[in-house]
Amino acid sequence: MKYSGQIRTLVAVDCIILGFDGEEYKLLLIQRGFAPEKKKWSLMGGFIQPTETLEEAAIRILKQLTGLENVYMEQLHTFSDPNRDPVERTIAVAYFALVDIQKYEKQISKEFHAEWFSLKDTPELIFDHNQMIEMAKNRLRYKAAFHPILFELLPDKFTLPQLQALYEGLYDTLFDRRNFSRKLLSTGLFIKQKEKEKETSKKGAFYYKLDQDRYLSDFQAFLKFIPNPDKLMYQEA
Fold first, then answer.
1. Among 16, 22, 56, 116, which has the highest number of CB atoms less than 10 A from its own CB?
2. Cα 208–chain centre separation
3. Strand partners, 13
4. What are the φ and ψ backbone dihedral angles of 140, each rounded to 5 degrees?
5. CATH number of 10-144
6. How far apart are the C-alpha atoms of 118 and 127, rounded to whole Å?
7. CA-to-CA distance for 30 and 112, rounded, in angstroms?
8. How does pLDDT run across 27-52, given as a tens digit for each residue?
9. How far apart, in whole angstroms, are the C-alpha atoms of residue 118 and residue 6?
């Protein structure tokens, strides 16, 4: 049985995959393999299958490209402009994922001709994908002011200067080093390691690891240490 007099509408899922290489934010893009807009840069996406939920489709698409599972992923927004896809009426549900580049760099599928781009220099993408990315940046800026969400982008061990660069890159601003480090350490989320990172300076900076138990239990009660988040979240990076 079907509803009479109704026209078919397709539902697609698009994944905004973000990483951080220690200096700047990166966006993983693919070359579209079919018309329209063939060989143009695109977000990784696909149509939802009859037996899938939206979340299952997003997880499948992410795994196809990166080989990773159990990464942070969040539904962003539904894009429903009737003319967004020139072929058929397609509603797109966008998700953004935060991944540790070091964990998946060798797992990226060559089939899709995937390539990392600086988030600051995103090329012109197909359809409304640039709009999706802008919305993802603003959502991330807002959430990062209240929750330790950005730690999903870090390797297992990291330095405080690397962590500061992570936040400064997102908000396109500079923070006082001592004040920022003091507030970070006051959260109790970090475990200091014995070894130092000495590639960037002779003195070196101690590595830290995230206290996973405390991170998971305190995720919704994270100390707000980003000043004036409402002012910063809409800045263009």
1. 16
2. 22
3. 46, 93
4. -65, -40
5. 3.90.79.10
6. 20
7. 6
8. 999 998 888 898 899 999 999 999 99
9. 43
